[in-house]
């Protein structure tokens, strides 16, 4: 299926929510294809309506299963849903693929659902940027809820989770998870805690441990819920959607949504400007001068501070 689109047509049909152009548009963004900037600019104007939910947590916690159930529940409530699964290039990706396959069959054929997997491809800094951009495209295409699934194991994955408006951290009952979560920095980004696999021993205990840890922290206006689910049996899923929607109302009413989005946009602007200014600067300095400066450093003829001062003054 190698239909080629010119940029205006692709933009028009993506914004109209057509699936094949939408899939192509996302590939453009991922590959930074020519035309992708024009596309993103067009999408940006139309985005900002979707509620973006990050679902993160350790490998195998049941994120994919849960996201599938959440999508089904949102569909029952009449909302359209896009799923962005960010696959880690790790030994666990087999599990992710399996989860995705199950999901594909359960949700296929529903025009109100769109599923997309994104590969991490090593370049980790770019992943959060690409995820945010892909979400802009899905948002502009009219999807009302965007579920971003990512494994919460590293800083880069946390960055992906933070492109969302609201973030759910999914854990399992096995002891040590609460401690792990705190270590991994998941505690700081959670707006909602989920203990999935609550059919297993120790779910209540894990829930209590997290609640206790949360109580030790500074009091906040949003009381972070700790919610039990059995995703594989659809247990507690509808109530979890209620929690998400409550959080959305909270975010809107307190101005926190606007605040978070503004901070995110500032970050994006800063990233773009940094790249642009750096490239311009590097070009102005030129390769020869750059090599000279490095040689001077290596020979201890100049300090890094002196070299920076000198180059910046050029
Ligand atoms: N017992 C039990 N098993 C579950 C539950 N939810 C999911 N599972 C199972 O847990 C396994 C992992 O589920 P996934 O949904 O693929 O987990 P994941 O967090 O997406 O995994 P990765 O993407 O590989 O990190 C699968 O075998 C699921 O069937 C649950 O509530 N209870
Ligand atoms: Mg998964």
From TrEMBL:
GO terms for molecular function: GTP binding; GTPase activity. The keyword Electron transport does not apply. Keywords: Chaperone, GTP-binding, Hydrolase, Nucleotide-binding. The keyword Nucleotide-binding applies. Transmembrane segments: none annotated. It comes from the Bacteria. Pfam families: MeaB (PF03308). SUPFAM superfamilies: P-loop containing nucleoside triphosphate hydrolases (SSF52540). CDD domains: MMAA-like. Residues 49-254 form the AAA+ ATPase domain. PANTHER family: LAO_AO TRANSPORT SYSTEM ATPASE, LYSINE/ARGININE/ORNITHINE TRANSPORT SYSTEM KINASE. Belongs to the SIMIBI class G3E GTPase family. ArgK/MeaB subfamily. NCBIfam families: lao. This is Methylmalonyl Co-A mutase-associated GTPase MeaB. It comes from Eiseniibacteriota bacterium. The lineage of its organism: Bacteria, Candidatus Eiseniibacteriota. The gene is meaB.
């Amino acid at each position: 299926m190698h239909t080629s689109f010119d940029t205006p047509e692709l933009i028009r049909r993506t914004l109209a929510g057509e699936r094949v152009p939408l899939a192509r548009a996302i590939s453009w963004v991922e590959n930074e294809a020519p035309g992708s900037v024009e596309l993103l600019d067009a999408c940006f104007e139309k985005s900002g309506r979707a509620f973006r939910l990050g679902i993160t947590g350790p490998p195998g916690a049941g994120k994919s299963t849960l996201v599938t159930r959440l999508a089904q529940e949102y569909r029952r409530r009449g909302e359209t849903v896009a799923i962005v699964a960010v696959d880690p290039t790790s030994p666990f990706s087999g599990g992710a693929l399996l989860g995705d396959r199950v999901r594909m069959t359960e949700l296929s054929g529903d025009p109100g659902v769109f599923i997309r997997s994104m590969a991490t491809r090593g370049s980790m800094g770019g992943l959060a940027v690409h995820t945010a951009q892909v979400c802009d495209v899905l948002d502009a295409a009219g999807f009302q809820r965007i579920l971003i699934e990512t494994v919460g194991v590293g800083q880069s994955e946390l960055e992906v989770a933070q492109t969302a408006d609201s973030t759910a951290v999914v854990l399992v009952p096995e002891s040590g998870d609460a401690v792990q979560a705190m270590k991994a920095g998941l505690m700081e980004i959670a707006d909602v805690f989920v203990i999935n696999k609550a059919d297993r021993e120790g779910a209540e205990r894990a829930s209590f441990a997290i609640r206790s840890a949360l109580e030790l922290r500074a009091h906040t206006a949003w009381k972070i819920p700790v919610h039990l689910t059995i995703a594989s049996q659809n247990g507690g899923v509808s109530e979890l959607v209620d929690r998400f929607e409550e959080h959305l109302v909270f975010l809107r009413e307190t101005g926190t949504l606007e605040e978070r989005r503004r901070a995110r946009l500032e970050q994006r602007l800063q990233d773009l400007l940094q790249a642009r200014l750096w490239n311009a600067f590097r070009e102005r300095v030129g390769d020869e001068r750059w090599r000279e400066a490095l040689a001077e450093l290596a020979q201890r003829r100049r300090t890094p501070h002196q070299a920076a001062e000198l180059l910046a003054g050029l």
